[in-house]
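Chapter summary example.
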Amino acid sequence: METEGFVTVDDKAAKAAEEDEVDDEEWTDLERFQNFVTSQHPLRRLVCVRGLPDLVNSLDITDVVQLILQPLQAILNDGESSVRDALASNLASIVKNVMEKENLTDVEQFVECIWSVSFPLIIDQDQQVRAVAEDGVIEYISLIPEDLVKSIMLDSILGLVEQESEDDRITGMKLLGEISFKLGHATVKSSVGPKVINLAEDSMFRVRKAAALYIGKVSRWGSREYAVDVLLPVYLKLADDEIWGVRKACADSLADMAASITSEMRGKHILPLFDKLATDVSRWVRNAAFQHLGPLIATLSTEEVTPKLLQYYSSMATGKGQSVTADHDLPTFCAYNFPAVVMTVGRENWVHLQEAYHELINDIQWKVRRTLSYSIHEIALILGPELTQESLLPALDTFLQDLDEVKVGVLQNLAKFFRVLDPSMREKYVSVLCNIEMETYNWRFRLLLAQQLGELFKLYEEEIVKNELYPMFMKLCRDPVAEVRNASCNQIDAILDRIDELKVDWRDEFMEELHDLATDRSFQHRLMFAQMCGVLLSSAALKVKTFENDFLNHLMPLAEDKVANVRKKTGKCFQIMSTLKGFSNESRIQGVIKALKNDKDIEVLRTMGIEMDVGITAQKYSSNSISNDSEIN
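The structure predicted for these 633 residues follows.
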């Protein structure tokens, strides 16, 4: 080959070809794809592939097959792995965008084409491309009809496990495990099971490891009888493998295997196996066993859960017992699975878990405490009022004094937690709500409180509602942060329902404070009143007469507000009213709508359904309104 310095003649030719390529600004996205998919310029091919999901979304399924998937065959052998990787990462999005289209036809042809693109990528020589493609197939497999999975995809996956390449056999085992839920009992027994059994005897430990990791998933989608009689013995043999990585994979699939067999077999084989894995000579095996203990317990019935098993589980938090030498991540796993474990064993066995919970809420790792703070309301629902007040209120107090990252979890679900408490205890914790409302350095805490006001109003009787929650609501409606104000206003429907339910004698006073928002000097507060009206009008439980009496007369003047945003929000309300029946002042409503359709602001006009061209016409309508919004300026 001729060379000139360090640049070959072929390099020069390629560069010249790149420079000769046309990039027409008039091209549509499809035309650009068709011209760039075989471009000499790698960057153009990369950009072309990255834009596939949006392009596919704009085409019907026939065009996707003929104009997109068939030309993509050229990318499968692209010399740049980054281009192939980009294609692999978009597989799931392409399938999702196509399968969500209405009136689908030619689905079989589409599946054939997408599989013809996917399969070469899952056996790509580049491990990154291969891994990304595998994940893409696993993600989109749920969208493919079962009959097409079996008729188009299954045979080539089964063929992978027969290949000489160790990587191909591992990929085949992984995919068989992940697609088994689409195959049915008969196919799992006749086609998948025998392959798994062969791979479990493979001479390469990485293949046996893959078999151990996915045999549980295969077992779950075969019949229970087949799982017990055929696959369970294979699994138990793998759990005795001399390679610790294979035994660890068995620990990872422990919960799946337990879920696929009978209660009798779990007691006879799985629980003793956990005991064995939890005391394995390998630290990695022990850690994996404890990591999956929570999911394992969640597959059992209350009667199957032995005190020894709960002791094992508690030891992850307390450090007592068999897991004392285990990894520092175990408290995290223990905390994450705590609600599922409590749900399984029931409140009657809380005594076996109480010490572990106490240790976890005081764990040195804030992520452990954060996990529990997000689930405290779920555990409260399981335990009931008595145990919640005895065991969880101290945890609540601890979390409320913790780091913001921990505190946020309990604040987000405070109303749900309070719902479990006895009314008398609930009243004692009103001070917590007041402290949140007075929060100054973190407005997001006020936002969380505002989002739960409707639920909180329902939890308390009139005295607390009047003296604490009503003032809190009004203050949050005037909060300096817009997100907080919006969240508060969105609760108006539930709040009014509770006030009416209580039949309070101060309802008129409450309404007067709301009306004050409509005439407030600050446009932000007038905007909040219009937003409240929109919330009420959009409610399925709208009471037209009540809205007319309480809100309509105060909303109408906002259609002439000097601030365009207020008029826009008001316009949305009247647009909703125009679709509803039962308003007595129909002529006044239509008059307001007519006036808003002649507004000088383009956004108001668009809200009222007036189509405006962008350009001079839009400028004509928007320039005046902007300059007139002196309050905003």
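To summarize the output: Residues 62 and 106 are 7 Å apart (CA to CA).
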